[in-house]
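batch job 7 of whatever, protein = Outer membrane beta-barrel porin/alpha-amylase
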Amino acid sequence: MFKTNFAYGCVSAMVACSFAITAQADGNASNPLAAVSNTDIRYQYIDLGSNTSSSDAFIDGAVMLNPDLKLKYEAHYISTDVSGSRQNAFQKLNLKGIYFPSQKQLNETWGIKTAIGLEWILDFGNPTDGTGTGSDQLAPLAGVAFANSKTGLTLIPLVQHFTSYNGSTDVNQTAMRLIALQPFAEGYWAKADLKLPYDWEGEAWPVSAELQIGKNISSSLAIYGDFLVGIGGDRSFEKGVGLGIRFNY
C-alpha cells in the first residue's frame, strides 16, 4: 500500500510540476506570442565600440484586447555619444498588433501557436545625432511558437520586414529571430534570442544575440537581467547589459 501511494504521489508531483513549468512558459511575457498583459520598465546600456555608448530607458508592455488579439507597445528614451557629444532624446514609439489565427496540439508533447501582425514605428530621433533613423516605419511579421508540455521549453521562430514610408533615411530590413524560452523551478526562467537582420540598403548582417535571466517574485511582479552581444563584422554594437522590472496583470 505504501509503495502504491508513494508511486502515485511521485507521478502526481511530476505531472503537477510539468503543468506548472508549462504554465510559466505559456504565461511568460518574455515570449512575444504569450497571451498575457504586462508592463515592463527597462534599462539597457550598450557599448557601441570606438569609445561610444548608448543608454536606452524604455517602457515595454502588452495588452490582450481579446483572447486572439494582442497589442504591444514600446516607448524609448535614448542617451548616446555616437555623434561625438552626448545627445538625449525621446527616440521612438512602437505599436504592434499581433493576431493568433490558430493553436493546436501536434502530439502528446508539442503544441503549436501561430501569429501574424503589424508593427508601426514612429521615430522621433535624429540620425545625425545617433538618436534614431529619422524615418517612420511599418513592419509586418509572422511567427510560430512550439511549446513542449513536458519540459516547458518554448521555441519561437519569427520573421519581420521593416520598411520606411517617410523621413530622411531609407529603411529596408528583413529580420529573422529564433527565441528559446525555458522556465525553471522556483519561478526562474532563461531566454535566448538570436537576431539575424539583413539590411538591404547596406547589404549587411548586423547579427546580435541576447540572454535573459529572470525570476517571478509573485504572480504580478518579476525581475530580469539582459546580456547582449553583437556578432560578426557587420555588428551594430559590441556588447550590452540591461535590467527590467515586470508588472503582470
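notes: The chain has one domain: 39-248.
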